[in-house]
Amino acid sequence: MIIRIAVEELKAGMFVESMECSWLDNPFWRRSLLIKTDEDIARLVASPVAFVSIDTRKGRGTTLIPYAERRLATRPFSSSSGNEDLTERRRNRAGPTAETLDETLARAKQKVIALFQEARLGKTITIEAVAPLVDDIATTMQRDAAALIEGTRLKLNNDYTYLHSIAVCALMANFAIHLGLAENEVRAIGAAGLLHDIGKATTPEHILNKPGRLEGEELEVMRQHPTAGHAILDELGETTAIALDVCLHHHERIDGNGYPEGLAGDAISLHSRIAAICDVYDAVTSVRPYKRPWSPHKALAQMLTWNGHFDPVLLDAFIANLGIQPLGALVRLHSNRLGIVLDGGDDPTRPLVRTFFYVPDAKFLGPEDVDTTHDPVLRGERGEYWFSERWAEISVDVLANRMLR
Description:
globular; 405 residues; 45% helix; 9 strands; 3 domains; five-stranded antiparallel sheet; Hypothetical protein af1432
């Protein structure tokens, strides 16, 4: 049985099935785990995580309180009740202040700019200069990841490539942790993310910084950056095979329609398939002078529709790692209502959801738009499982705010 409890109610021996937080705020970098020690509990209590769901089939249980009573007793995420909100809790955690994070990001950007300038001038890039930078980004992610990712979202033309490299480094490293890869492999994947666009150091600036869509010859020139980057890194000799592979193949597609080599399926390495997802996600959610960014919900929904572009299993894992549900996805809330994800809300891990079905009674409800700050998403669901061939029709009716029977 899955039971939702506050983190303060955790005891050693309980199995945490899910945490009500994004991957950015997860102190363990994985969604589920067995609580073994009081130290594990202390880490969760000190984190922004307020509630978790435990699976009593896999670990120790607790006294079951009916949902209606639990709802009254639960600690709200809003500060209006006198409890700390997530921002305040994050501020009170041990770790850097916002100013320190800004300084870290600025320092990282300057180091990445220096790497690109050295490559542009034909100078050798030393791995010794890259490894500390990856560790610096990873350490900052562990202390206040949300601020780091937010700080890289606004990308002006002249610094897009540098901030994009930092963001992809962070996304790839944390995705690798979520997948359970070894520490040395995680560090190598982070370095690969940092260097994946190094070939753009050879791309003419009028093409690199063009405020609009590339066409014709411009596009062909831009598509040379993976090969150029691979050549730059290959000259180092000491560059990891992972960095070389990711640099060359992060624009390959599962269906073989990518570039530069047109690899398909298993011919594309795990590391390059990870890079392809992280690279596109950061690009389409970034604020640029000439385009509006997609919301995380819309970005993930669109990426799911691009058949043949990404490894579908890895994309599902990436979505789980982010803790963000795609726009239009069917989800179950902790109140055991099913609903469809709408766009809106400051925190993409707590979206606006239009509920329409109550699971325990198996009956339709009047559509209601729910702020999941107070009734969080438990997990994603499959519409076909619940409603068979009616799902397409039901989803249209729910989004149109129609009453269902």
